[in-house]
């Protein structure tokens, strides 16, 4: 059964009771920032609360793992619109601990496609057209790596102006605690791997 009837019933009451008035704002981010973060459901309300953000404070772009994979893909386009059309002056890439994109198994994903009825012919046609599933479905070895990759791609993008700061953070998906990985143009060193 679809969730649509229940959503529409709630929405009708929401509009009739004018509950939307608490969220009225314009399209420009009040805090002049854009956030690239993960689509993880644990962050839907936690992330804005942990950052003290209200409706209208920031442009929030969500995708799996907070990863910018394509320098000219939809996430980067959204960032460019936020900067050039909405006056965002800072970008925050916020990954999180326990992210499902960590060590994502592309072979297992392709098998799930098959289990859901996607024919082998479709998968091989995509592969032959240059869509390599192991690259398309690539995750990262750690959330820190994913954040650092996205920060680097954004900072080095030819269309990002020098005056826009790009920061990288991790959020704990249960407590909301933040950890800074890259602030402005100064990165914190990556862990050496040895125990201290």
From TrEMBL:
The keyword Zinc applies. Its EC number is 4.2.1.1. The keyword Zinc applies. Its cofactor is Zn(2+). Zn(2+) binds at residues 38, 40, 96, 99. It is an enzyme of class 4 (lyase). Binds 1 zinc ion per subunit. It catalyses: hydrogencarbonate + H(+) = CO2 + H2O. One of its GO terms (molecular function) is zinc ion binding. Keywords: Metal-binding, Zinc. PANTHER family: CARBON DISULFIDE HYDROLASE, CARBONIC ANHYDRASE. Belongs to the beta-class carbonic anhydrase family. This is carbonic anhydrase. The lineage of its organism: Bacteria, Bacillati, Bacillota, Bacilli, Bacillales.
């Amino acid at each position: 059964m679809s969730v649509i009837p229940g959503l529409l019933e709630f929405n009708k009451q929401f509009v009739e009771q004018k509950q939307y008035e608490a969220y009225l704002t314009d399209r420009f981010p009040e805090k002049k920032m854009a956030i690239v973060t993960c689509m993880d459901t644990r962050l839907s309300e936690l992330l804005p609360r942990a950052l003290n953000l209200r409706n209208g404070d920031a442009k929030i772009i969500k995708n799996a793992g907070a990863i910018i994979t394509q320098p000219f893909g939809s996430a980067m386009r959204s960032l460019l619109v936020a900067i050039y059309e909405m006056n965002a002056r800072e970008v925050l890439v916020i990954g999180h601990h326990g992210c499902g994109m960590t060590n994502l198994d592309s072979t297992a994903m392709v098998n799930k496609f098959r289990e859901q009825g996607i024919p082998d012919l479709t998968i091989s046609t995509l592969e032959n057209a240059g869509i390599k599933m192991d690259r398309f479905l690539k995750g990262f070895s750690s959330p820190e790596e994913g954040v650092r990759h996205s920060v680097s791609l954004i900072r080095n993008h030819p269309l990002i102006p020098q005056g826009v700061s790009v920061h990288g953070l991790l959020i704990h998906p249960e407590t909301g605690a933040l950890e800074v990985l890259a602030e402005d143009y100064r990165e914190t060193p990556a862990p050496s791997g040895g125990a201290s």
